[in-house]
phosphoserine phosphatase (Sphingobacterium olei), 431 residues
Amino acid sequence: MKNYYIIDFDSTFTQVEALDELARISLDGHPDQEKIYNEIERYTNLAMEGKISFRESLAGRVSLLQANKTHLNKLIIHLKKRVSKSFDRNREFFKQNADTAWIVSGGFKEFITPVVSPYGIKKENIYANTFKFDEEGNIIGYDETNPLSDEGGKVKLLKELKIEGTIYGIGDGYSDFQLKESGLIEKFFAYTENISRQSVTDKADHVTPSFDEFLYVNDLPRAISYPKNRILCLIVGQVPEISALILKRDGLSIRVKETLEEKYVKDVGLLLLGPDVVISDDQLSRADKLKTIGFLGDIKGHVNKTICNEKGIVVFDDKKNKIRNAEYIPRRMAEFINNGDTDQSRNFPNLILPKKIKGHRLLHIHKNVPGIMAQLNNIYAENNINIISQFLMTRGDIGYAVTDIEADYDKGLLKQLKQIDQTIKFRILYK
């Protein structure tokens, strides 16, 4: 039995609602632009929350569009730039699952097909509505015989298709949940990367803040080793909004607090601290998942750098109080999480790594003692590993070895690397 993946388009595959965006384009310059647009948006939200029927919403929106084929061309260009980030970085999944990764949407093929086809999604696996046009190319309606134009359309379609396999549904709206309610799909994943509707998330089998999360929990091939939405980033003290926004945009799970509360100590992955914050040695020594600290000021006297070294925590701080560091420091933290870079770190060897990871990137933080590289490379040799590139830098009592290897290897390799004597931390990246 194959697994099938039924994926919504609006606010799921893309960051936006396409008909709302089409209204922005087609009504540009119209004297009642905002009034009409707000009414279209209202129809969208009412249907997504299950407060009116989908057909009522669709008919209302299409009648207000005042759009034609030239507007659709502009919309397609716009939508290609607004594909959800986690879908965009997981193109390989769609190539590997071309027969079973389907787009099922109450939107329209005229703009969906050109947006999703470059990802390897087959045209015959795109199910959506179609517009009706007049002789001048103006949109005058839609095919009302299409089951996707009706209330419960996705349920009706799947009943007609009679798919033999296990079906997973991914979407942000009420029509997506209806698939689960009907019993036609195994699990419903409420997708919240772009919008979260409580009426939908409350009923979901799993809330997935990104496509990475969906792939991770289902143990499917993915672009990154660990979903960033599962990494807790605490922002503590007086920190400018732009600093928090940079890390939030990177997809991390953000909490903003006045102090480092005890309940977060064991789970925090990143700490961004304001200039007056002091982290106790006891808290720092118990923060076993902490990977990096950013400090908007001189960290001396606020965070124990010796403990950071012992635990493999990379520190970035702002000794000279430069205004730009409100942006620069969180970006450095993100670059370490995403790429392994330690450039401008206060306590680690400063290493700028190639951005393109062809295979998997293994980050090995260890005590700076003789023989570590020999142990690392012996393990690679014993496992017949093809090393693409390798970097080593040391600073004081810290050694930092980065190795890019081909992705095809036995997972027992990772356990061996973690068990090397004098290992402080080990992490894997792939994109």
